[in-house]
Amino acid sequence: MAPSNSSASAETTPWWRTLNRYQWSVFVLAACGWLFDCFDQQIFTMSRSITMRDLMPQADTLTQLKYGNWATSIFILGWATGGLIFGTIGDKWGRAKSMGLTILVYALFTGLSGFAPNWDMFALFRFLTGAGVGGEFAVGAALLAEAMPDRARPHALGSLQALSAIGNILAAVSLGYVVPGDQLGWGWRGLYYLGALPALLAVFVFLRLREPERWVAAKAAAVQAKATKHLGRISDLFTDPTWRRNTLVGLCLAVAGQIGLWGVGFYTPELIDAAIPTVEPPTRPKIEVILSAATAEAHSAAVNALADPEKRKYAEFVSRVEPQARARELAVVLTERLSDGQKTKLRGILENAITEDKKTGLKMRGGILQQVAAFFGIGCFTIVTARLGRRLSFLLALLLAWGSLVFTFATFQHAWQIWYLWPLLGFCTLAPFGGYAIYFPELFPTRLRTTGTSFCYNVGRYVTAFGVSILGPLAGILHGLTPMPGFRLAAIVLSSSYLLGIVALIWAPETVNQPLPEDEKSLKH
Fold first, then answer.
1. Strand, helix or coil at 331?
2. Tens digits of residue pLDDT in 81-95
3. What distance in Å separates the CA atoms of residue 267 and residue 261, rounded to the nearest whole number?
4. Contact 160, 141 (CB under 8 A)
5. Are 29 and 144 in contact, with CB atoms under 8 Å apart?
6. 432 and 487 both lie in a single domain
């Protein structure tokens, strides 16, 4: 029987025209919740090296990198812990109330992060911020998935993830205008003050949104069957063979992409630090005097003319010429005279060095390029997955992400390269995350939807936190073993995490054009 004109017209109507006024409200509020969630993540990653220098001014570059890695791991651990807790709460209490609560939590502790007097307090506030950040995605994605018509659902979820790039772009713009002294000059703390503003969004969520009919029906069925304990119970993800398979597949996909992004892809500010040195105008002529010193006495006098921060800067320059210098005491490095060849290399490094404010501007531009491309990468995944299916789309996305990381961290040397490397990196490494927003809610029934989505995303973050924590030590072990700096080599090694997701696709179910799964009958047992 030929399809009717009305059904054919419905199939060709753009998905956004199928939404009613309330569904648009759900989409806008869920998108804003995740957008500002990502803003919080990015102000942290983009200003991390600046923050560590301010909180630990006496530490050398590798030590600052190590503590920055630990802060990142602590943030991700909080993200994972909060995600698991709020994921269960989302299935028990309801999606809308849980989403409002997670937004309130991450906004509050983001603001408090700006008041941290030392690394310890900063790390504590990062953990608590992560708890809200981790919970928001699972409940927001489940709320949106259940509020949307079936045909609009994958497009809405993909758009939700794509619009998160707007939050990342706002973070990059804020970095360039809030931190440098020649702009607002608020420093890194000003970024966190801005991050507290989304608390206002939580008010609209509490007042405007209601619980999805799917969840209300599942809750009523559970109450009638006296099986409310089955709502959001993590153990139920593993007692049924189907949900167990889906959970393990989702977990492996999440681990692969998150280690690639958080363990490597979001370290582009540190990659810029590693490739492009900085020196302030007053320090440059003092280092030039050291390089021109003809005698040991002149060398010693020139070194003693440096202030303490300038001595550390000179030692950093020496370590770029002689990697083994990182392992020696500062006093030893300062007394050693360089060979003529080393002086020539150091003069070249000094000539290419820029000021710290200019480097912050470079990071801002790189961040914008990376996140604009991420928007298109996530959007492209949404389109491709509707045509090729979830499994093949994930395979292509994971391979591209892996290749982009290896290429970028192996070849970046000059500032102008951000114009093509950073967009490539953003497009490829964020594309799989569009798949997570679409695919994870399709793997689980209503009673386990936020629990399952959160489990995949957030247990994956526990593994990711470990991966991030080994980047610094691995960089220290590998540094000096090859001509490639240890930081770059360690990043390339960690990027092999994508192989785990590629292998998991062997068992992944294909969910394209399928309704959300249900198993209400299990509540009767």
1. helix
2. 887 788 778 777 777
3. 8
4. yes
5. no
6. yes
Q: How far is CA 452 from CA 7, 31, 183, 382, 449, in A?
A: 34, 20, 45, 21, 5
249/324 same-domain check: no
Q: Which domain holds residue 113?
A: 19-276+355-524
CA distances from 231 to 88, 419, 492 (A): 8, 48, 41
Confidence at 332, pLDDT banded by 50, 70, 90 = confident
Q: Is the pLDDT of residue 524 over 50?
A: no
Widest distance between CA atoms in the chain: 97
Burial class (CB in 10 A: 0-12, 13-18, 19+), 370: buried
Amino acid at 42: Q
Contact 51, 191 (CB under 8 A): no
Instruction: Give residue 510's pLDDT.
Output: 93
Angstrom CA distances, 330 to 280, 285, 311, 312, stand at 20, 21, 8, 7
Residue 375, token pair as written in the block: 């928007």
Closest CA to 445 of 279, 200, 261, 239: 239
Phi, psi of 355 (to 5 degrees): -75, 165
Identify whether the C-beta of residue 409 lies closer than 8 Å to the C-beta of residue 488.
Answer: yes
Query: Which tokens belong to 379?
Result: 């959007």
Q: Are residues 233 and 361 in the same domain?
A: yes
The CATH number covering residue 404 comes to 1.20.1250.20
Is the per-residue pLDDT at 523 higher than 50? no
Q: How far, in Å, are 35, 154, 215, 329, 458 from residue 40 at the CA level?
A: 9, 25, 29, 37, 17
From CA 216, how far away is CA 414, in angstroms rounded? 56
CB atoms within 10 A of CB 252: 21
